[in-house]
Request: fold
Amino acid sequence: MSGSLAARLARRIGRDGPIPLAEFMALNNAAYYAGGDPFGRGGDFITAPEISQMFGEIVGLWCVDAWERLGRPADIRLVELGPGRGVLMADALRAARLQPAFRPEVHLVETSPALRALQRAQGFDAAWHDRVETVPEGPAIWIANEFFDALPVRQFLRVNGCWHERLVDYDGSHFRFAAGPALRHAGAGEDGDISEVCPAATGMAAALAARPGYGLAVDYGYVEPPRRPTVQAVSGHEPVDPLSRPGEADMSAHVDFAALVRAGREGGAAVWGPVPQGAWLKRLGIEARAARLGGQEEALARLTGGDAMGRLFRVLAFGPAGAPAPAGFVDGEGG
Reply:
């Protein structure tokens, strides 16, 4: 343990005191994703592109439609944030070949060397970036599937009429939550309430909204604040204590879609949704695609079912101000 993230955090907290949960989460996920391949049945969790090629294919065709709505620019960037193994992008590009004129410049925003190697193995040409800010300017279509949930959140706890930021302390054997000093002018609430905010997510959404083009965010989350903590961790497809395995378990939090909508509009974009993933996929023809492929009954149920990802996950789209709703959305629908 002497060289592990847990040991480094224990030494730091022992020297400098408790750290904000957001910093703990950021350090955890940076170490976790740098460590290897967490995806699929043999990893810690499975994402929609790993369940079936249908998901990436529909995203790819949605991107072609978005490009056509932009006037079919010859110079177009296709950007994915947090592309995992590169499966989604590979499936999307294969489906997009149905329109030979769509020849995007592919950019992947990925900090993990291990995951970049897996993405390169997919065989498509791409440029890699540590930050979205280094993606060249110009018209772009961006995709963020299960990206925003991994960004670090700040948590605040209401105690005795005051809000306190939740910190992470170390008691000599375990990491545990602690309360920071009382915050002034922090808003109303009831004792016991826990509030979460994700400045990284809203800042990213605003920056993406300011770029010309379209974007698609797919994630699990909420529109109405739940007044309870949503930070969670998984290892081997099972939930674990979020503080118990620094750098060894995936930490995430439910996405505040209402905050993303506000950030997108403040960035100058039109925003549609969020709508349930199942409804969005069905509108774009996943049932017909499943019938054509055959043997997709289980995958279809997982991706679209009301008791599975179809309801838990939501889809949000960004686009040019004043534009009509893109494929799979209806004007005035959602948040």
